[in-house]
Design brief:
alpha+beta, six-stranded mixed β-sheet, 2 helices, rod-shaped
Length: about 180
């Protein structure tokens, strides 16, 4: 009878061990699934950062293209068109002009689409007093040392705000603004 009791104990112990091993395997499986999910999330986040950086670098091409267009802009071309406004445009809460971006000129840079608009930093289209109606950059001039000589107004340059919008893969949108002088 003692032998029969020993055999029953051994069988009972083997069964308990099997249950413990199954529980541990289940916990390890769940841990592995969690780690796999964390790795996937970090890969997606890394990809999003790469898309954002790519779009940010592509915005430089838009800024350079818009600046070249501003340099070539003559007074006859001051009428509003699809990329230029002679006055400041209404802006949204983030300071981005409210324009129809699909009408703006576009440049393909890799997988990104770069669009730009330019606005002169003025409150009126027909500027009579640039120092009061526009944002201008004045260049300091040396002054005369002769007593009683009249001080001259320093020359001023026109200021333009360039806004570049880059649309990339997976819904990436980057907006960059720059103030340039002509």
């Amino acid at each position: 009878m003692k032998r029969a009791l020993r055999r029953l104990k051994r069988r009972a112990e083997r069964g308990v061990t099997m249950v413990v091993v199954l529980i541990l395997l289940t916990v390890m499986l769940l841990g592995g699934l969690v780690l796999a999910r964390m790795t996937e999330a970090s890969t997606i986040a890394g990809g999003n950062v790469a898309f954002h950086e790519s779009a940010l670098q592509a915005s430089e091409i838009g800024l350079n293209t818009a600046f070249t267009a501003v340099r070539n802009l003559s007074n006859e071309q001051m009428a509003a068109n699809n990329w230029y406004s002679p006055v400041e445009v209404a802006k949204d809460s983030k300071g981005v002009p409210n324009v129809t971006w699909s009408n703006a000129p576009s440049i393909a840079v890799g997988a990104n689409t770069v669009r730009y608009v330019v606005e002169r930093a003025c409150t009126v289209a027909d500027v009579d007093y640039p120092l009061r109606e526009c944002l201008v950059k004045q260049i300091p001039q040396p002054k005369s040392r002769v007593a009683g000589s009249e001080e001259l107004e320093p020359p001023n340059s026109k200021q333009f705000r360039i806004t570049v919008r880059v649309e990339g893969p997976k819904g990436t949108v980057v907006t960059v603004q720059s103030l340039v002088t002509k």
